[in-house]
Write a structure and sequence with these properties.
Distance between the termini: 78 Å
Low-confidence stretches: 199-206, 547-558
Number of strands: 10
Mean pLDDT: 79
Largest sheet: 6 strands, mixed
Order of helices and strands: HEEHHHHHHHHHHHEHEEHEEHEEE
Radius of gyration: 39 Å
Number of domains: 3
Number of helices: 15
Shape: elongated
Structural class: alpha+beta
Length: 558
């Protein structure tokens, strides 16, 4: 049983590697003969287009079939000397191999062209470079073998190169882009990096009825142009249709539109009119037109790929933004829940600490109670800082009338239980103007953190002083908090605004206060600076942009 399965698998592999490619290549040869130009040359040569598809799907094992087909078909093209048939077959086999080598192996290309980079790699390494080598060798062999006159070398080189490029452009690219995913799902090919479960290619806007009608109109316009206007005079109009389709619908539709236009303007005329192929090879003006239209098709294809990539990236970003919004909402609920659940027991602990002080206790017990109270204050302060950070990060800027004197008094009242608060002289007479139009929550966070730090880091001995000043200069609100406390060593002044940074092991707090302060100020498009001399004190200077009329600040410039 196992032996029979192995034999059947071997036979299927040989059929795929030899029989089917030869059939495909011979069909392509017969189609190409309809647009033959001269001995050994055709305006469109489909076996190489088919060869590119098969070698990208199945690898170099299809090359012998391509070589055999080219050698056996040489007589169809009127080539003499059968001994040279293998030589005539060599260039196109080399072209397909070099395309696979350069694009798949060296450039690590993905033949289903999933993005702009892969499309660019394919155009350069998969087509242009191998095509130049192939046509130079083939036409050179024909000249050396006296199959074509020497004077026809350059016209044939240019014309057949453009024809082969157009046939690849109009046939190979659509098959690679639209069929590769289906072939992967059906098990016909096995390509690394291609998702077998991925659905069919979705065209940009293709599902909307009005866009389907728009595509029908484009197709009708191209059809009418091909039968009513001379291609030589109005070829650029097809480029306009191609570019419009790429911009409007993206990569997938631009491929179909380009292939449709190529069918109307090149393939059908080449089959129906011998004069068409004659003009392509002998009329220089037609060759220039052929080059111009080829460039327009390339630009439209790249444009469509860029548009599709942009739409895909936008969808991905929108999806990520929705996910982030969901996470932010969950985080907000989590922060609120944690702060509420922690604040309630902290208040209970603080109440028990205060009650305990009325009981008769030993000195040791008093010490324990003091430590509990200090730890409770630290945890409560940390929770407050986390809430401030969360609100600043997510709450939009608001503007309301704020009395700075009253706000400062409210802040000082909340800080009166700090150690040594009653020993510190706090001067707020420098607050001018009193009324401002600003974001009260954020201004409160800034002032609270700066003033509380000034209180915490006073010297153990001596009389402490803190001055709070505000002024307006050059449409900016300047807030200064100056103290004569411990000061900050110069070597760490650049680090004090970092998250969780603490200058010494004995530092108070969590290391979040100044970091949050800086984040809040930047949210208001402001800046913060510090001037400090270690052992003498510090001055924190905050500047926030404002709009001012008279003595009243009326609006944030945010």
């Amino acid at each position: 049983m196992a032996k029979n399965y192995t034999i059947n698998k071997f036979l299927r592999t040989q059929i795929v590697a030899w029989v089917l490619p030869i059939v495909f290549f011979q069909i392509g040869t017969q189609l190409s003969f309809w647009s033959s130009l001269t001995t050994g040359s055709s305006l469109f040569y489909f076996p190489i287009s088919i060869g590119l598809i098969l070698i990208y799907w199945w690898g170099p094992r299809i090359l012998p079939a391509l070589f055999i087909n080219a050698a056996l078909s040489a007589g169809i093209w009127g080539l003499g000397n059968p001994y040279l048939y293998p030589l005539y077959a060599f260039p196109e086999t080399l072209f397909v191999f070099l395309s696979w080598l350069f694009f798949i192996k060296l450039a690590k290309g993905k033949c289903w062209l999933p993005n702009t980079r892969q499309l660019t790699y394919f155009l350069i390494t998969g087509i242009l470079i191998p095509l130049f080598i192939y046509k130079f060798l083939l036409e050179g062999i024909f000249v050396l073998a006296d199959q074509v006159p020497k004077e026809n070398f350059l016209p044939l080189f240019v014309t057949t190169s453009l024809g082969d490029f157009i046939s690849i452009f109009g046939f190979t690219i659509p098959i690679l882009y639209f069929i590769t995913h289906l072939a992967q799902r059906k098990g016909i090919v096995h390509l690394k990096g291609l998702d077998r479960k991925k659905g069919a290619i979705k065209f940009m806007y293709f599902s909307k009825l009005r866009n389907n009608i728009e595509l029908i109109i484009i197709a009708l316009i191209a059809f009418i142009l091909s039968y009513s206007l001379a291609f030589a005079d109005y070829w650029f109009l097809y480029g306009v249709l191609s570019l419009y389709s790429a911009i409007r619908f993206g990569f997938g539709i631009s491929i179909l539109v380009n292939s449709y236009i190529l069918l109307l303007t090149y393939l059908i005329p080449a089959v129906l009119s011998e004069q068409f192929t004659y003009d392509m090879i002998l009329v220089q003006e037609m060759t220039r037109i052929q080059m111009g239209t080829s460039l327009l098709y390339i630009f439209s294809l790249i444009t469509g790929r860029v548009i599709s990539d942009a739409v895909a990236y936008e969808k991905q970003i929108n999806k990520q933004n929705r996910a982030l919004e969901h996470v932010n909402k969950e985080l907000d609920r989590f922060v609120y829940s944690v702060s509420h659940d922690l604040s309630a027991p902290l208040k209970s602990i603080r109440g028990l600490v205060n009650i305990s002080r009325f009981e008769k206790m030993t000195d040791r017990m008093v010490e324990y109670i003091d430590h509990i109270e200090i730890s409770t204050d630290k945890l409560e302060s940390f929770i407050s800082e986390i809430l401030d950070f969360s609100r600043n990060d997510r709450k939009p800027i608001s503007n309301e009338i704020v009395d700075l004197q009253n706000l400062c008094s409210e802040i000082l009242n909340s800080l009166q239980y700090f150690e040594n608060f009653i020993k510190i002289k706090i001067d707020t007479s420098g607050i001018e103007p009193t009324l401002i139009y600003t974001d009260e929550m954020r201004i409160k966070v800034i002032m609270t953190n700066l003033i509380s730090n000034a209180i915490k880091y006073q010297k153990p001995d001596g009389e402490g002083t803190i001055q709070v000043r505000t002024k307006v200069l050059n449409n900016k609100l300047t807030l200064e908090v100056e103290d004569n406390g411990e000061g900050i060593p110069s070597d760490i002044q650049n680090q004090i605004f970092d998250m969780f940074y603490r200058g010494t092991q004995s530092s108070h707090g969590s290391g979040l206060g100044l970091y949050i302060t800086k984040e809040v100020i930047e949210k208001l498009n402001g800046i913060i600076k510090v001037k400090s001399v270690f052992g003498e004190g510090s001055t924190f200077i905050v500047k926030v942009p404002l709009q001012v009329i008279g003595n009243h600040i009326i609006e944030h410039n945010v």
